[in-house]
Amino acid sequence: MLTDKHVVVIGGDARQLEIIRKLSTLDAKISMIGFDQLNDGFIGASKHTLKDIEWSTADAILLPVSGTSSDGKIETVFSNESLVLKVDHLQQTPEHCVIYSGISNEYLDNCVENSKRSLVKLMERDDVAIYNSIPTAEGTVMMAIQHTDITIHRAKVAVLGLGRVGMSVARTFSALGANVKVGANESQQLARITEMGLTPFHTDHMKEELRDIDLCINTIPARVITANVLAEMPLHTLIIDLASKPGGTDFRYAEKRGMKALLAPGLPGIVAPKTAGQILADVLAVLLTNQTKK
Ligand code: NAP
User: Fold this and answer.
1) What dihedral do alpha carbons 178, 181, 186, 188 form, nearest 10°?
2) Ligand 1, atom 29: nearest CA belongs to which residue?
3) Ligand 1 within 6 A of 134 CB?
4) Which CATH number fits domain 128-263: 3.10.20.30, 3.10.100.10, 3.40.50.720, 1.20.1600.10?
5) Residue nearest to atom 22 of ligand 1 (CA)
6) What tens-digit pLDDT sequence spans the chain (294 residues)?
7) Which of 220, 224, 280 to mutate to test the pocket of ligand 1 (most atoms within 8 A of CB)?
8) Which element (helix H / strand E) includes 277?
9) Ligand 1 centroid distance, CA of 165 (Å)
10) Residue 235: CB atoms within 10 Å
């Protein structure tokens, strides 16, 4: 239970509502900032502004998955109020207060460092990334269906990268009957791809391996689908780039060549916000339970 824990939730989207619901059930005291247009009432949760919140009692601060912008703005879909996190806010919290965010950037890192608080980047955790790969794979299937005129079954699909997302995506498309090959650069990953019953190839041979592909799904966060690679791919190939912005595709060249290449960030929040929120809520509940007061 989280009885006596004060959690300040600032901004966010539908995923935050699942988190609030779960933490509220666990008896945490929740203060919500940037939710003035939200009609739902949550037991044990109250609405506040950045000015009237009692920072000195906050045990944890929860930011949205996107964290803050490069100038400290926090996105919220439940308010028109402009929310800017400042180092001064964090300095007013007790020393044990932990900041939880999906991702971070230089602004947020500096705020946390200058206030001598600690930051947990939820999206960097293996458990969150693996659970999140499930709605990501489902969202990729949705996009493949929407943007092609062929079935996934028997389509020639290449997945680039065998990390947390790549593995789930490769397995999902294979289960739908696609002919899946996976590009990786480590020998143990190539061995794993073989073990999964899929066709492995080394990313050094990308250009040759993508010459007859119907669908190419990139999960490698580096420029790997270069103009050189694109120049030899069939014109009908659909590219779905899942890697974080700016993706791994030379989108300018793909467009020039008349190929459809789509950058698809944030699929879990788009296709399954409730599940994506529950994934975060479950992990946060454990982290907050284990967070000891000094
Ligand atoms: P991950 O577990 O780190 O996997 C990335 C994979 O790419 C690893 O296998 C890594 O191999 C490989 N890789 C990295 N640089 C490479 C290079 N230059 N050449 C060849 N392989 C390379 O990351 P993840 O959790 O799967 O996430 C992958 C990307 O998807 C990230 O950018 C993440 O932000 C994004 N993502 C997007 C969505 C969405 O909705 N679109 C959802 C979740 C995540 P090594 O381990 O050998 O480096």
Assistant:
1) 60
2) 243
3) no
4) 3.40.50.720
5) 220
6) 888 899 999 999 989 999 999 999 999 999 999 999 988 777 668 999 999 999 999 999 999 999 999 999 999 999 999 999 999 999 999 999 999 999 999 999 999 999 999 999 999 999 999 999 999 999 999 999 999 999 999 999 999 999 999 999 999 999 999 999 999 999 999 999 999 999 999 999 999 999 999 999 999 999 999 999 999 999 999 999 999 889 999 999 999 999 999 999 989 999 999 999 999 999 999 999 988 544
7) 220
8) helix 273-290
9) 7
10) 9
